[in-house]
Amino acid sequence: MARAVSRLLPFLLWRPPRPLLRRRPLNPSPKPLTTRAKALASCSSLVLPGDERSPPSSPSRRAPPSYGGGGSPGTIAAIVTSLGGGPAAVGIVRLSGTDAVAVVGRVFRPARREPAPWRPRSHFVEYGVALDGDESVIDEVLVVPMLAPRSYTREDVVELQCHGNDLCLRRVLRACLEAGARLADPGEFTLRAFLNGRLDLAQAENVSRLISAKSVAAADSALAGIQGGFSTLVKSLRSRCIELITEIEARLDFEDEMPPLDPMMLLSKINSMMQEVQDALDTAKYDKLLLSGLQVL
């Protein structure tokens, strides 16, 4: 029995041999790098290069701002007075863009004789008639040119003051569109004013609030915002924060050359700014009540 067990023991303890591991060469042949991998290998920083799919932009010309809404940075036109509320004495068609003067020049004929093309004087009112594509008179108008940058959008803006009938306004607008303008998207005049630096975001929002205001208090609050009330507060807080940071960093760099900073004065300024922020938050809640109103049962 012992002899039989001794013969079977090697077979019971046998294990299959481990597969041989392939050794990698110390210097493997490099794989071809892609365009972006080559750029990353050649750059010592982690800044990625520009997208290779887009054509290289010319350094001499800056790309025009995006106006959103599918619109293009061309000349826009729209009726800026209300429609559908019955006939009114006056209605306004507004144009804004680099070709606003040229478009109006194809539609407007001044009453005074002057050589073509029409050359307006900024912020001077002119009387004349509006013509369609067939050179037929469609309305008597007053034209108010406001050349850049002294305009609402900081572009060339021309307003045609027509008779307030919806039919007259739509005919003048159609003539402007046929002359080369495109129909403006909702709120695009204010959008251009914001993108061109004429208004900041808080002022642009208050334009909409003023238009939709349903009370005198709401209108006064929105008008104060348009005139820069909230924006002035934000700019003041920002400048004071920068001033405090400058004082602290200056003493870190030039500790031996400047007097020590008074911590009580520093805390006092910070608490004062915090209080102004809290007051602004409380005012924001009040403005929401002015906008939505109170429901009395």
Task: Write a short abstract of this structure.
By secondary structure, the protein is α+β, with helices and mostly antiparallel strands. It is built from 9 helices and 7 strands. Helix 6 runs antiparallel to helix 7 and helix 8 runs antiparallel to helix 9.
Question: If you had to describe this structure to a student in words, what would you say it looks like?
Answer:
- The protein is an alpha+beta fold.
- The protein has two domains: 119 residues, 2-Layer Sandwich (Gyrase A, domain 2), CATH 3.30.1360; 92 residues, Up-down Bundle (Four Helix Bundle (Hemerythrin (Met), subunit A)), CATH 1.20.120.430.
- Helix content is 42%, strand content 13%.
- The chain contains nine helices and seven strands, in the order H-H-E-E-H-E-E-E-E-H-E-H-H-H-H-H.
- The protein has a seven-stranded mixed β-sheet.
- The longest helix is centred in the last third of the chain and has 30 residues.
- The radius of gyration is 35 Å and the shape is elongated.
- The protein starts with a helix and ends in a 5-residue tail after the last helix.
- About 15% of the residues have low confidence.
- End-to-end separation in angstroms reads 105 Å
Shape label:
elongated
Number of domains: 2
CATH class division of the largest domain: Alpha Beta
As laid out across the biggest beta sheet, the strand order is 3-4-5-6-2-1-7
Distinct helical segment count: 9
Low-confidence stretches: 19-64
According to CATH, the homologous superfamily of the largest domain is Probable tRNA modification gtpase trme, domain 1
Which range best describes the helical content: under 10%, 10-25%, 25-40%, 40-55%, 55-70% or over 70%? 40-55%
